[in-house]
């Protein structure tokens, strides 16, 4: 019969037994040392995916320089290959957060399609996370604390020890005479989590011995509640995810009217769900920006600035523009070989469909006051035509225009509802795709 900790671990990991590989995030500390030892021992009697350990070296303190060698010796003794990854931690207001971001970026580079990253965080970590986020005024999603599993790169991140206490892990380590690293920074109360761990939790558990277990259980309840909110958001977004009138425009967008039919709370819930893969979400005080955008006059074209981009309203639709999407070169470009597609710097690709017009062609951008000949309608003001088409204002400045000398021959046919030529050719534009911030 397997020991309790091994049996619980094997049961937790059962759904991922057919993964191509299991990577263990191995800091060398107590938690990851126990996890690595448990899995290495289970691999002797169970058919498990290929095991490997990953040590991320942040280089933030001199003591850490010796840790890769310690981790290598532990892995060598257990017969588990180790990958050491050195990262640069960006300077910022929160060193903890910057180190975490660098660490998870490294993990993302390791985990392949369908593979699993295993992290040794435990029940005490979960309780600390809940209390820390509660003190920061987090919502339900934040108070759900650390999920047992989530997507990571093309695979999965798992925390299989999340229902085990630190005391259980230490008892296992002592029973098996394991050695581990004690990070000196873990004793520094200037870090918020350390303050909670060393100053707050001892007082809580003195009065309420089950405080850690109860807080961790509360996090599970909140995680379930967040799951229900996600289901509600999915239902509400189905009505708003109507096809865009400009399917060629590679930007996420929603119809506004279905959102406005919801209560304010449901609007915020749906938008949080929609925006979460696109940007860091605003805190409660900044949701006034959504109300201003939503309630603006129809022709106002307002925007709401967020951490990683802007939310624009154009008519009865909202559009997400990731940071940098609007940056492009508006310099004129000569089209020497119009029979071939033309790459526009930072602005996608332009191509002529049909017979190529004669003469020297050039691509320019709007300056204002442009006039274009429209078959059957005569000479028309380009601005008025764009207004008729409903093309969002944030696109108009980067709309490529085809000139022959000083004559405006065409605007891309996809941008409007009018015909652009009687001569059997059309100008087609495929705008720049910006991977950052696209679903």
UniProtKB/TrEMBL annotation:
InterPro entries: Lysidine-tRNA-synth_C, Rossmann-like_a/b/a_fold, TilS/TtcA_N, tRNA_Ile_lys_synt, tRNA_Ile_lys_synt_N, tRNA_Ile_lys_synt_subst-bd. The keyword Hydrolase does not apply. It catalyses: cytidine(34) in tRNA(Ile2) + L-lysine + ATP = lysidine(34) in tRNA(Ile2) + AMP + diphosphate + H(+). It comes from Pseudomonas veronii. CDD domains: TilS_N. Belongs to the tRNA(Ile)-lysidine synthase family. It comes from the Bacteria. Residues 361-429 form the Lysidine-tRNA(Ile) synthetase C-terminal domain. ATP binds at residues 27-32. The N-terminal region contains the highly conserved SGGXDS motif, predicted to be a P-loop motif involved in ATP binding. GO terms for molecular function: tRNA(Ile)-lysidine synthase activity. Gene3D superfamilies: 1.20.59.20, HUPs (3.40.50.620). It is found in: Cytoplasm. Pfam families: ATP_bind_3, TilS, TilS_C. This is tRNA(Ile)-lysidine synthase.
């Amino acid at each position: 019969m397997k020991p309790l900790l091994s049996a619980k671990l094997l049961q937790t990991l059962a759904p991922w037994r057919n993964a191509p590989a299991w990577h263990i995030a191995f800091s060398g500390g107590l938690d990851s040392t126990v996890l690595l030892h448990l899995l290495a021992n289970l691999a002797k009697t169970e058919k498990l995916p290929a095991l490997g350990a990953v040590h991320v070296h942040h280089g933030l303190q001199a003591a850490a320089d010796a840790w890769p060698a310690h981790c290598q010796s532990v892995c060598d003794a257990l017969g588990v290959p180790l990958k050491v990854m050195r990262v640069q931690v960006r300077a910022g207001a929160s060193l903890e957060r910057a180190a975490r971001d660098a660490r998870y970026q490294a993990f993302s580079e390791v985990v392949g399609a369908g593979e699993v990253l295993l992290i040794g965080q435990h029940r005490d970590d979960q309780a600390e996370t809940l209390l820390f986020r509660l003190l920061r005024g987090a919502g339900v999603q934040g108070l759900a604390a650390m999920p047992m599993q989530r997507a990571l790169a093309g695979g999965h991140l798992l925390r299989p020890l999340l229902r085990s206490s630190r005391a259980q892990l230490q008892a296992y380590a002592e029973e098996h005479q394991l050695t581990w690293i004690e990070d000196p920074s873990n004793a520094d109360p200037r870090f918020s989590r350390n303050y909670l761990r060393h100053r707050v939790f001892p007082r809580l558990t003195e009065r309420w011995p089950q405080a850690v277990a109860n807080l961790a259980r509360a996090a599970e309840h909140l995680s379930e509640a967040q799951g229900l909110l996600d289901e509600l958001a999915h239902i509400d977004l189905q009505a708003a995810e109507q096809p865009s009138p400009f399917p060629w425009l590679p930007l996420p967008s929603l119809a506004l009217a279905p959102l406005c039919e919801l209560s304010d709370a449901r609007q915020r819930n749906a938008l949080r769900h929609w925006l979460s893969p696109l940007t860091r979400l605003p805190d409660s005080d900044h949701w006034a920006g959504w109300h201003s955008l939503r309630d603006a006059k129809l022709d106002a074209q307002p925007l709401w600035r967020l951490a990683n981009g802007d939310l624009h309203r154009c008519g009865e639709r909202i559009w997400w523009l990731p940071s940098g999407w609007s940056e492009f070169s508006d310099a004129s470009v000569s089209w020497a070989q119009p029979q071939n597609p033309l790459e526009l710097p930072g602005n996608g690709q332009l191509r002529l469909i049909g017979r190529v017009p004669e003469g020297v062609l050039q691509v320019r951008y709007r300056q204002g006051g442009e006039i274009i000949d429209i078959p059957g309608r005569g000479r028309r003001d380009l601005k008025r035509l764009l207004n008729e088409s409903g093309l969002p204002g944030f696109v108009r400045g980067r709309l490529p225009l085809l000139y022959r000398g000083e004559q405006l021959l065409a605007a891309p046919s996809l941008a409007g509802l009018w015909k652009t030529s009687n001569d059997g050719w059309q100008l087609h534009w495929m705008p720049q795709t910006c991977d950052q911030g696209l679903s």
